Amino acid sequence: MNELTTDELQPHITILGWLYLIGHAVFLVLGVFVFLLLTGIGLASGDVTARSVLGIVGISVGLLLTIVALPGLAAGYGLLKRKSWARPLAIVVGILSLPNVPLGTIVGLYTFWVLSQPPARTYFGPPVMI
């Protein structure tokens, strides 16, 4: 496999950043939608049990999707802004995306291909020591 130069790598990192932002924004929107839908159905039903169960499920699923979305949104932002912490975060999010067949798998593999290129190590600058 051919290695990319820094100039060839830059558009791939931009694409990857936007893929993470858009893809994980969908998770965030779905989380809000599921929360509103399930709690709304529970309230509209007029049944106390349905309101309780659907409220708990709506909050749980909405919160889970929001928690899943936040690291991807941060990784996308960091990749676009060339933050030093973005590369390792994007690699972790890419690993976690692999089981999400087929799109998550494709984005995860693309993440590994782009961020494992030798110029990617220097593209983001030295890692920040905490």
Descriptive notes:
The protein is mostly helical and 130 residues long. 80% of the residues lie in helices and 0% in strands. The protein has helices at 6-45, 48-80, 86-97, 103-115, 118-123. Helix 1 runs antiparallel to helix 2.
Structural descriptors:
130 residues, mainly alpha, 5 helices
Span of the ends, CA to CA: 35 Å
Unreliable residue stretches:
none
Number of strands: 0
Instruction: Compute the average pLDDT.
Output: 92
The coarse overall form would be elongated
Q: Gyration radius, to the nearest Å?
A: 19 Å
Number of helices: 5
Biggest sheet overview = none
Structural class: mainly alpha
User: Helix coverage percent of residues?
Assistant: over 70%
Set down the secondary structure blueprint.
Elements: H1 6-45, H2 48-80, H3 86-97, H4 103-115, H5 118-123
Helix pairs in contact: 1-2, 1-4, 2-3, 3-4
Give a brief description.
This protein has 130 residues and is an all-alpha fold. The chain contains five helices and no strands.
